[in-house]
Amino acid sequence: MTSTIANKAKVIPRGIYVPVVSLYKPTKRQEVDYDASYKLFCHLIRGGLEWAGTNAEAVLLSAEERKELVKIARKAAVDLGRPNFPIVAGISGQSTNESIRLAEDALSAGADFGLLLPPNYWAKAVTKDALLGFYRDVADETTLPIVIYSFPAMCNGVDMNSDTLSELAQHPNIVGVKLTCGNAGKVTRLTQEYKHEQFAVYAGSSDWLLPCLIGSGSGCVTGIANVFPKSVSRLYALWNDGKIKEAQELQGLVAQAEKACKEGIAPTKYAVGHFAGSAAGIADPKTFWPRKPYLPVDGVKAAWVEKVMQHLVQIEQSLPDAV
């Protein structure tokens, strides 16, 4: 390690995090179904996960809905005897002011960390100086520790190279980064400079969890953990236990299944409902539909999702609950 910066005051734990899908009532306005959300949160905790509280569909949620979901997540953790369970809430706004407000909302609702995308609506205006100022200003104005979220495909092409991320890593309230850009080179460059306690680096999906860990990364944040939480947690545990060949085999199976999540929010939510809904105690498949104007998958896509994920069912069912 080459950096001499101090360890962060609050270090984000290593492990597997999940951007929890939002669940809605089958009504015209699709109000958030908080009862179903509580059941899903409990199911995921039992699956051995840490999690990113509400970021998966935060763009479709009001500020009040975001706050309430963080509260529900915290209640689920407390009820399962995990009061210190780390919760990471989505706090992304297009302005500095909005992001600060969302960070304060998340903190007051019980979040431990905030996951923050870069501003991206006017991409040509998002210069390096604008990016640095944005993240530093938000981190200055809240005590909620910030995790940078690098996702250029969803951010109008706005990307952050490893030098920019390294500059931000030096802020005392910026504790890590989620790399959904899929750039493994950023992992190795950043982990060469910073140890986990200084600036944690996570893969943005589980299909390259092992490459991230080999590069000294700290884990991953992955949508497929909504569907097969125990399997992804098992993959991480195999690596930590030094069972490399078994980890490699499971990594391939997880990567094959994750193809469905790469297809978007509707296939991901269908998979959660189909494979995990009954285990979580949620019976109505419409609870897992996307919020309008986005549409659920059709029959052809649903059949494809089932086919590419089916091989993980037996593995998932063979693993014990963590709680």
UniProtKB/TrEMBL annotation:
Keywords of this protein's UniProt record, alphabetized?
A: Lyase
- Domain of life, per the record? Eukaryota
Positions of the catalytic residues? Y149, K178
Residue ranges crossing the lipid bilayer per the database entry: none
The cross-references to Pfam families, in alphabetical order and at most eight, read: DHDPS
Q: Note the CDD domains from the entry.
A: DHDPS-like (cd00408)
Q: Name one GO molecular function term.
A: 4-hydroxy-tetrahydrodipicolinate synthase activity
- Residues the entry annotates as binding pyruvate: V221
Q: Which family does it belong to?
A: Belongs to the DapA family.
Name by which UniProt lists this protein: Dihydrodipicolinate synthase
**From which organism does this entry originate?**
Penicillium cosmopolitanum
